[in-house]
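User: Please predict the structure of the protein below. I'd like the answer in structure-token form so I can feed it into my own downstream comparison script.

Assistant: Understood. Taking the following sequence of 204 residues as input:
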Amino acid sequence: MDNRKICNALPVVLLAAFSCLPATSVAFVYDEGVDGDLSNDGLSPTVLVADVGANTLAGTTVSGDLDYFTFNIGAGFRLDAIILTAFDSADDLAFAAVQSGATFTEPPVGTDPANLLGWLHFAAPLVGTDILDDMGLGDGAIGFVPPLPSGDYSFWIQQTGTDSVGYGMQFVVSAVPVPAALYLLGSGLIALGGARLRVRSEEK
């Protein structure tokens, strides 16, 4: 290949390489006791901004108080896990569900599990464990196997009993592993860089 063509191709290849790298900001930390009550309306859920790392949520729910929230997993990222970090209640059970999309369309009464991506009942024995895979196995739901890919996801958390439930969750987001093709691209960049150095040496 002509040395000038190699040198001209280098900026294009560099741009392609950097466009494959996802941008990051800050994982959310949301505490209902500090930041206010999560939305009670599935069609207008509280919007959270998720990013790489452990996105943290602390909330409280009781009969009649539904918690709805949504966030986007950006391109190049995935939702690896939901760690239940706290469960404080005299009751021994609460409910959580997830749907694809930026709103939660299923009503709290007459819910059709076939329209849920996943769901589960959670309680104190699950504290410290990943509940995302359990949600994917919810009876009658669409179902999934973690991790969840990029896209919008909406969540519904509810306690149907009269005893309030204090809960904590971490939504663990990570970058999608770099594919082998990008490693090959890196090797190509090194080769092109070496070729450019040789061209400069020959021109002197």
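That's the full token string. The longest strand covers residues 77-88.
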